[in-house]
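Lab notes, practical 5.
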Amino acid sequence: LPALAFGKAGRDTATFAYAYWLNERPVVVAGVDVGATFERTNNAETFFDAFGPAVGLVTDAGTLASLYDIFLRGGVTRSGARLLSADVLAEYTCGVVSGWDRSNKAPMTFGRGFMMGSWWMPSVYGWWGTKRCFGHAGGFSTVAFADPDRGLSVAIVTNGNRGRNDIIKRFTPLGHAIRRACAR
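Output from the prediction step:
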C-alpha cells in the first residue's frame, strides 16, 4: 500500500487535497466550534506532522479500500503477506462499548479500534443491517468501512466538510446503496 502513510511521510503537502469547511452554521463538538478554525487547523503543516490514532492518515480512496480489504482477509494481503494477526484484528473489529457519545451527540458503538455498525438504527455504513460493519468516519468528510457479511470494503473520500450531522445525511444513503448493490 505505497499511497498509505500517516502525515506527510516525506511528501509535499501542496500535492494533497486540502480540507474545506462548507457549513455556514456553527458545529460544536465537545464545546468547541470546529468550523471556526477547521481549514486553518486541518491544512496546517503541523497537522500533517502530528501522529494520532484516529487522525493523520493521508491516502487515496483506492488504497484506503484496499486496507479494509486486508482487514476482511484476516490481516493478509492479496499477495499472501500477513500484516496483522487474525486474533488481534478480531479483537479490534467487535463492539466493546455502546451508548450515548457526548462528543458526537449520538448513540454509537465502538470497538477497540473502529466505529461499529448497528443492528437497531442507521449508521454511516447504511440504513440497516450494519451490525458487523466496522470502520471510521474521518474529518467530517470521509468514511471507510468493511462489511464482513458481503465481503465488501468501501472508501468514500471527499474534502468538503459540513459537520457530523452532514456525515449521516451524505454517507448513510451512499453506504446503504453500495451495500445493497453488492448483496451476496
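Observations recorded by the TA: Residues 61-181 form a domain with the Beta-lactamase fold (CATH 3.40.710.10). The chain has a mean pLDDT of 88.
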